[in-house]
Amino acid sequence: MEDLFLIKDIPELSAKKFGSKIALQMKSGYTFRSITYEQLDDMTKKLAEYILHLGIKKGESFAVLGENRPEWAISYLSIARTGAYVIPVDSMLKEKEIKMILHYIKAKGIFVSPRYLDLINEIKDSLPDLKYVISMEDVEHTHEIPFHFALDEGRKLLEQGSHKYRDVKISLDEPYVIIFTSGTTGQSKGVMLTSRNVSYDIVYSTKLIEVKENDRFISVLPLHHTFEATAGFLLPLYNGCTITYARSLKPNEILEDIKDSQSTILLGVPLLFEKIILGIKREIKKSLIKNTIVNGMLAIEKGSKFLLNIKLGNPIFKTLREKSGLSTIRLMISGGAALKPEVAESFESFGFLLVQGYGLTETSPVVSVNPLHKYKHRSIGVPIEGVEVQIDNPNENG
Questions:
Q1: CA-to-CA distance for 147 and 171, rounded, in angstroms?
Q2: What superkingdom does the record give (predicted)?
Q3: Inside any domain, residue 110
Q4: ∠ CA(112), CA(38), CA(57), 5° rounding?
């Protein structure tokens, strides 16, 4: 078995390997706001030291609430370095559900983006355990702790010789994160995951989807979701990849961010991929001549695949892929629901590789994924190494 690791150690381990390489970035105006691996390690150390200085102890809970952004990732890893439970909160939940979760886990503090500060201020007085609210931006609210203030206080503590974060002892088999998921019941339930759970998934998923240091991930799915947290956040950081956070869920902005960041891997849900392929086909149909040519080329591609087992989508549709903004994408992975085979087949016809996998929050989350060189569009793939799968009450198809 490969060496597993503590999730709290990812910033330090990756900083030693990848140093000044960009870890996290997000477009701001015409340029990217970037954070290197060394900076990620430094910032999470400072914030962890500050949180511990506030009196937060191992086994207590500290939450994260906000949209995808570098500060969300930094907040998550900072909490992990304190030994407190990381509580990623679904920002799409209603106010009463967020209140219920924070009350249930007795959250001592929360990192929150400005978008949700008013919500937290509305419910804070009814949460007696919630003592500390750290804003992910330096906004002009009177009661929140500004992000850069917390960083600066952490810096001062470290310069004074305080290194409480180094004294945090946690084993591979102790829970470090609690993820609330409604599942099939509608009522949110907390799932506790350990570093062994998540690091195992990271190590063996890396092998199956062949992630390399030069890969660049585009982050679209919400970070509180286990699929994105493990496969789109922690896995790329472990491997020294660069993560670009999409500015929004608008298809045109996602495609622009992919093009500008030259992303190579996109994780998504079936609906996202359905919208992308519909957009490509819509652009083709705008021109009658182009539509006729493309249909002819598609017929050639399908014929070559069927008769000769040769995939011509890549060379035939090179110009179309470049125009779509997806020319740098080498791999798309769909999860969260069943992917229609015809969607994956459409992407393949245009020279893209879209495979699907299967997972559960309780399995941290990857159970299976299609091997890149032996994939089947009507399959959820093979279990990752070391995972056992049993089909309960199989039908006539197995």
A1: 29
A2: Bacteria
A3: yes
A4: 45
* Rg (alpha carbons) of the chain, rounded to whole number: 22
Q: Which residue has the tokens 């500290």?
A: 62
Per-residue pLDDT of the chain (398 residues; tens, 9 = 90+): 679 999 999 999 999 999 999 999 999 988 999 999 999 999 999 999 999 999 999 999 999 999 999 999 999 999 999 999 999 999 999 999 999 999 999 999 999 999 999 999 999 999 999 999 999 998 775 689 999 999 999 999 999 999 999 999 999 999 999 999 875 566 789 999 999 999 999 999 999 999 999 999 999 999 999 999 999 999 999 999 999 999 998 888 998 999 999 999 999 999 999 998 888 888 777 654 344 444 434 444 443 444 444 454 455 567 766 777 889 999 999 999 999 999 999 999 888 999 999 999 999 999 999 999 999 999 999 999 999 999 888 888 76
Task: Tell me the residue range of the domain where 112 lies.
Answer: 7-194
With respect to residue 398, please indicate whether it lies within any of the assigned structural domains: no
Count of C-beta atoms within a 10 Å radius of residue 118: 10
Residue 16 sits in a domain whose CATH number is 3.40.50.12780
Residue 395 in domain: no
Q: Note whether 172 and 217 are within 8 A (CB).
A: no
Strand residue runs (E) in 211-255: 216-219, 242-245
Domain total for the chain?
1
Residue 100 DSSP SS3 = helix
Element housing 112 (H / E): strand 107-112
Asked if residue 224 is part of any domain, the answer here is no
Nearest to 53 by CA among 142, 191, 159, 176: 159
